[in-house]
Amino acid sequence: MNRMENKVVCYYCGTIYDAERGKCPLCGSALTSDDAESRPVQRRRITDEERRQRQRAAKGKYAAPKKKKKKNSDPKPFQIAALVFLILAVLVVFYFIGDMIGWWPGLEDRIVRVDRFDPENFSDVCTELAVDPERIELLQPGDTAVLTVSINLDCGKTLYCVSNDEAVASISKEAQSEIGEELKSAAFTVTANGYGETEINITCGDQKASCTVFCGNPDESVVPTDVTEPEDFTPELNYPLDASLYARGATLMLRVMNLPSGMKVDWSSDDVTVAKVSQNGIVTAISGGKTKVTAQVGEKKAEVLIRCTFGDNADNGAHLQLTDVTLSLWRNETYDLFLYDSDGVHISDITYTIENPNVCDVKNGVVTPKNYGTTNVIITYNGKEYTCIIRVT
Fold this sequence. Notes:
By secondary structure, the chain is mainly beta. The chain has helices at 33-38, 48-62, 76-101, 107-116, and strands at 2-4, 7-9, 16-18, 129-132, 135-138, 144-152, 159-163, 169-171, 176-179, 183-192, 196-204, 207-215, 242-245, 251-253, 266-269, 275-277, 282-285, 289-297, 300-308, 319-320, 324-327, 335-336, 339-340, 346-347, 351-354, 360-363, 366-369, 373-381, 384-392. Among the domains are: 2-61, no CATH class; 78-116, no CATH class; 126-219, Immunoglobulin-like, CATH 2.60.40; 319-392, Immunoglobulin-like (Sandwich), CATH 2.60.40. The strands form 8 sheets. Strands 4, 6, 8, 9 and 10 form a 5-stranded antiparallel beta sheet that branches. β1 (2-4) and β2 form a beta hairpin. It starts with a strand and ends with a strand.
């Protein structure tokens, strides 16, 4: 430090202050006797600008350190992101498990479906109908065989397979389906129920086909001889009322169910231009219309109405008398639900489908109520459906 009378100039920062203080009020430097004797007195006064610069330097040197900002440590955004990722992972795993089990079609199924069925070329019309084989021979009741029916890939029509005589052979309602490169097919099971021969008629839209089913030994032939018929004998046919043929050239086999051993049957048709019958009981459709086929056994006979429902007579005037019927459950009312032709004769070779079997039952054309409610009874004939509403009150 340098003394200047009773004033002292700080050697470090140049501040002038009273010597009595003992140390600089700005930078805190102490005054010693050695400093006063060894250093000369500085008489030059520093400028205001130099003082301000020294003051700023002193403040920066002794200023308190700045506090660091704390980082954001809130865990909520990370928890939300983890939860979203977990949900997406569960959905992806669930989708692939469902695809493997078969709950829904996978991506590869959608690709194959698009490749095979072009929506622009989808016609929804049956243009091809084929059966394999066209004749099935079974040795005894209980034997089975497979009947394969094939249609075009873009066909959207319903396929119907009906046995003309289920006493001889029946066809399963369910089939194992398969899609090929050009056709899709369904494999049905045909079961022999009795000896004889019958036809299985297959229809899909406007296309019709048939398969002959024979049950028995084809090598056995019995030549009937004329014998005296029993007095209480009345011939009964496997088609007691009527039968239908759906295409020109289609055939079905008639037979007398209760024919006595050794008796001979003579067959005849009232109109051979509509349908002809061989002496073996095989009826062949010739043209559209109706005719009666008679089985003559001795002095007695049985008749069946043959309907050739194709061409201009495809529907044959088929109709229902009523399409909306109300039955009383308390009175146990019933209704004869039949399909009638243009002459008012009811058609028997039809099938019934009940949408809600808990409401009513249909047996031999008679509707019987079971529970309160409403349902539709659908009658199928010649590929067409006729609906009757049944209301049980």
